[in-house]
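Lab notebook, design round three. We kept the backbone fixed and only want residue identities now. Task for the bench partner: fill in a sequence for the structure below.
Input structure tokens:
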């Protein structure tokens, strides 16, 4: 009871910081990245790629190479792995890095600073994070055929999955939010190219996004990716540090 009351109070405080846009509106953050088109079951790697595309302009994560690295680490194809996929992929990105292509065509290997799996949140909190520039991902259940023909509709499962129906899930990066007749929804960058939804943007009702409270299922929550410094800026700092260190060493070395 106390935790629910606290969440409601936080929601009220956050909501007062934001513009009251009424029961029918839509907000989309500026500076969106180039749309991605996934090849096979690689929505996770493209969704993570979107978070760093937004944080690191001019650096493009190679999602196919990322998926290959993931499969090499687990020794099984994507779709046959039993690990918490999102967590495993993010740990790989953080600890080993993944291939990226810079706008000048050079290939580099980059790492993220970290990530955070959030405990269940109310929609006001999530809306506030998006407007504050958080690179936020989330997962929801889909029926591929009805989802592929989304158009400008806001997605939700029409009926629950049947016992003989295998659930499918889709992970995306959220870049906006809105309300339709007072019901909150999220706007996401999809990984099926510009033909999907409205010029590549999709929408899903907030209550459809997984927020599993169990710690062992924390990959099925909202996850924010902490990209860290822009890789090219970090490389320049490393070069300056190396040059300065070499110069100091040269001065200390007797002739």
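Proposed sequence:
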């Amino acid at each position: 009871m106390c935790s629910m009351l606290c969440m409601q109070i936080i929601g009220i405080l956050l909501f007062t910081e934001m513009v009251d846009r009424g029961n029918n509106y839509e907000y989309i953050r500026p500076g969106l990245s180039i749309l991605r088109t996934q090849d096979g079951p690689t929505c996770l790697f493209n969704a993570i790629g979107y978070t760093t595309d937004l944080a690191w302009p001019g650096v493009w994560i190679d999602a196919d190479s990322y998926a290959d690295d993931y499969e090499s680490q687990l020794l099984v194809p994507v779709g046959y792995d039993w690990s918490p996929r999102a967590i495993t992929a993010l740990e790989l990105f953080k600890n080993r890095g993944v291939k990226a292509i810079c706008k000048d065509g050079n290939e580099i290997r980059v790492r993220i600073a970290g990530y955070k799996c959030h405990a269940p949140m109310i929609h006001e909190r999530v809306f506030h994070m998006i407007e504050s520039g958080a690179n936020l991902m989330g997962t929801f259940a889909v029926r591929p055929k009805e989802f592929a023909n989304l158009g400008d509709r806001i997605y939700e499962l029409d009926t629950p999955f049947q016992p003989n129906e295998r659930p499918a899930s889709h992970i995306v990066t959220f870049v906006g939010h809105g309300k339709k007749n007072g019901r909150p929804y999220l706007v996401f960058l999809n990984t099926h190219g510009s033909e999907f939804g409205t010029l590549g943007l999709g929408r899903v009702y907030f209550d459809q996004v997984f927020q599993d409270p169990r710690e062992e299922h924390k990959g099925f929550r909202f996850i924010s990716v902490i990209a860290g410094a822009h890789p090219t800026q970090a490389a320049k700092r490393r070069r300056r540090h190396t040059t300065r260190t070499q110069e100091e060493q040269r001065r200390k070395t007797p002739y």
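Keep this in mind before ordering anything: The beta strands are 25-28, 59-61, 98-102, 107-110, 114-117, 136-142, 168-180, 183-189, 201-205, 223-226.
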